[in-house]
Write a structure and sequence with these properties.
binds nicotinamide-adenine-dinucleotide, 465 residues, 22 strands, 14 helices, seven-stranded mixed sheet, alpha/beta, five-stranded parallel sheet, FAD/NAD(P)-binding domain, binds flavin-adenine dinucleotide
Amino acid sequence: MAEYDYDVLIIGAGPGGYVGAIRAAQLGLKVACAEGRATLGGTCLNVGCIPSKAMLHASEFYDAAANGAMAAMGIDVTPKLNLPKMHEQRVDAVSGLTKGIEFLFKKNKVDWKKGYASFVDAHTVKVGDETVTAREVVIATGSSVTPLPGVEVDNDKQVVVDSTGALELAKVPEHLVVIGGGVIGLELGSVWRRLGAKVTVVEFLDAVLPGMDDDVRKEAARIFKKQGIEFKLSTKVTGCTVKGKKATLTLEPAAGGAAETLEADCVLVAIGRRPNVEGLGLENIGLELNKRGQIEVDHEFRTAVAGVRAIGDVIPGPMLAHKAEDEGIAVAEWIAGQTGIVNHDVIPGVVYTMPEIAGVGLTEAQAKEKGEIKVSKFPMMANSRAKTNHEPDGFVKVIADAATDRVLGVWCIASVAGTMIAEAALAMEFGATSEDIAYTCHAHPTHSEALKEAAMGVMGKPIHV
Ligand code: FAD
Ligand code: NAD
C-alpha cells in the first residue's frame, strides 16, 4: 500500500491551485485539490478577473452608445440599460468557466475534495470530515479583501461593499465613493461611472495605481478625470456611518488636518488584499508568516516546512492570476522532479479600463536606481490605428539600459494595452534590446506599431513624431 493517499494535495482551486493540479496530473502524479467554495476557479473566476471583465466589457458598450463615441462614427443610438440582463451575462460567463475547470479536473483525474482544509501535520490534512494524506501539500489559498477599520462591509445591504458586492449591485448608485485608487477601485469605479453613477475615488497616496510607472500614474489620473471620475488624493477615510441606504464618510488629509464628510449611497472598500491563512492550521505544522502575513518560499516554492509548498496570492509578489498560474505549473514540475521556472522580473500587469493600462518590468524610477538608462515615449495620438479608431489617449514608453540597450521595462496606455504588453513581455523574456523591437516588422495599421516606434525612439529616430 502506498505511504500516502496522493502524491500531491493542493489546497485551493484558484488559478494557482487548479492549474498546478492539472499540470501535476499531466505529469503522471496522483492529485487531489481541496476547495471550500461551491465552484472551482478561486477568486479569479468566481468574483475577480472574469466577472469584473464581464461588467467592464458590457459597460463599455453602454458607454460608447451613451457618451457619443458611437454617434461620432455615424451610429445614432440611445441606450437603455437592462442591468439584470448585464448581470445575467456576467453570471453566465462565470458559470461556464467554473464548470470548465470541473470538466478539466475530471478529464485529468484530479480528485476535488470539497471543503475547507486544515493541516493536522505536514502530510495530513483534514478536508471537512475527510482526512487526506499526501507526499507533498501545496498551499494555494489565495487572498481576501483587506478590511478597513471603521468601515464595515455588508455586501447584502449594498451600501458598503467590497469588490464582490460591487460586481453585483442591483441598481446604479447615484454616488459611489471608492476607497482606494488601485486596480479594483479604478476598474469597478469605471463600470459604475459608465452606467451613470457619480464616482469619487478617495486615495491615501498622492497618485493612483501604486507600483506603476509615474508617467502612467499621472496620465491615467488625467484620463479618468476626463471621463468624469473625481479624485480626492492624499486623503484618508477615518470613519463611516450608515443610516438606511445612505453612508456618511469622514475624511482627513493623509498628513493630518481638518476633517470633512462625504455622503454616498454606495461605498466600495478596495484598499488591497491579504493572504488567506486563517483556519489552515499552520500552527500545527509550525509554519510562520512574514511581516506582511505571507508564506515565504524558495525558488522551488518550498516553505520552511519539508513537504509543504506554497504559490499564488498567499506568497510574496504581485497578486495576479497569471503569476499564480505560472507558479502552479512550476510547482507541479518541481514536485514531478523537473525544473519549474517563473521569471518574476517579467510579469505583466494590466488594468482593464478604457483605455487599458499595462506594464512589464521596471518603472523608470526603479531602472534609474540601477544605472544609466535611455527612455522613449511614443504617443498613441501619432499611431494611425488609434487615431482612426478615435482613441487618441495614451502612449507607449520603452526603458532600456543605456550601455547594453537591453529593454528593462515597457509601459503602455492604449485601448488594447493588455494585448500589446504580451509582445513586450516576450521580448524581455528573450533578453531583447530596443533595437530588436525597432527592427521587427509590425503589421500596419495596428496599435502595436506604437511599441515599435517607441523602441525606435530609444535610438532617437521614430518616424511618426
Ligand atoms: P485564489 O484565486 O484566491 O483561490 C484560492 C482558493 O482557495 C479560493 O477559491 C478559496 O475558496 C480556496 N481556499 C482558501 N482557503 C482554503 C482552505 N483552507 N481550504 C480549501 N480551500 C481554500 N488578476 C489578474 O491577473 N487579472 C485580473 O483581471 C484580475 N482581476 C481581479 C478582479 C477582482 C475584483 C479581484 C478581487 C481580483 C482580481 N485579480 C486579477 C486577482 C486574481 O483574482 C488573483 O491574483 C488570483 O485569483 C490568485 O490566485 P490564487 O490561486 O493564488 O488564489
Ligand atoms: P491595490 O493595492 O491595487 O490598491 C489599493 C489602493 O488603496 C492603493 O492605492 C492604496 O494606496 C490605497 N489605500 C490603502 N489604504 C487606504 C486607505 N485607508 N484610504 C484610502 N486609500 C487607501 O489593491 P486593490 O485595488 O484592492 O486590488 C487588490 C489586488 O487585486 C491587487 O494586488 C491587484 O493586483 C489585484 N487585482 C488585479 C486586477 C488586474 O490585474 N486587472 C484587477 C483587480 C485586482
